[in-house]
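Treating backbone geometry as a discrete language has practical consequences that deserve illustration. Part of our work consisted of pairing the sequence of a single chain with a tokenised description of its backbone. What the numbers capture is local backbone geometry rather than side-chain detail. For completeness, the protein is quoted in full, as a sequence line and a line of structure tokens:
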Amino acid sequence: MIITIIIVLVVLLFLSLRIVKEYDRGVVFFLGKCTGVRGPGLIILLPIFEKMTQVTLRTITMNIPAQKIITKDNVSIEIAAVAYYHIVDPKKSVISVERVFDAVNQISQTTVRNVVGQFQLDQLLSQTLEINQQIKTVIDAHTEPWGVEVTAVEIKDIVLPDNMQRAMAKEAEAERERRAKIVAAQGEFQAAVKLGEAADIISQHPVALQLRTLQTMSEIATEKNSTIIFPAQFMTTVQEAISMIRQDSRGDSRTDRDETKPSKRA
């Protein structure tokens, strides 16, 4: 009899011992009434009279499954997101809601659908950070009475219809072509302005044009080309120089003739 009592006491002792880890807490109920939160460490419970529910305090990563959403501009898309939350009040998370993980998951899906439906597709793609923050705020407001704090919500995938992807690709290509034409036009405008300024300077100094022509010819000659194209203006200049030399030579010959005539008369 004594041995039986000892065995029963040992079993009850083992049943009354609980070990709660550092990242967990235990919500204790005495005859169905919550008496508080215990842990971490070794906890002794009254067998049969006390029950304990363990709750983790670590951050939980929860995938929000992809769901079809119609944006404000009537575009059908699929969005998948991820939420991060942790329990700040173990007592509320056990008493206020049944299966807190499922509750947070369901409210997250509903909130993502409602918030994203208020934005147009372009806003959804360009204002992702603001939308994430708004979704987090709404979910956090719903889960606060449950002792849950949402730390972050991120949209991780946006699936567009094929026809919308092709339309966006054409739009992006047209936008790139528009920017390229604008850049090219600006370059032509700046080049025209500089050429106009250069023309004004050259018009005041005609010799500068000849020097520039000679410099161009020098650059062409360095490439060992067998053919050199002379500008028409350069050829005109050469002809003027030749005619000037001829005039000078004619003037010298006339002077020599004038000098020789008096000697013959003498």
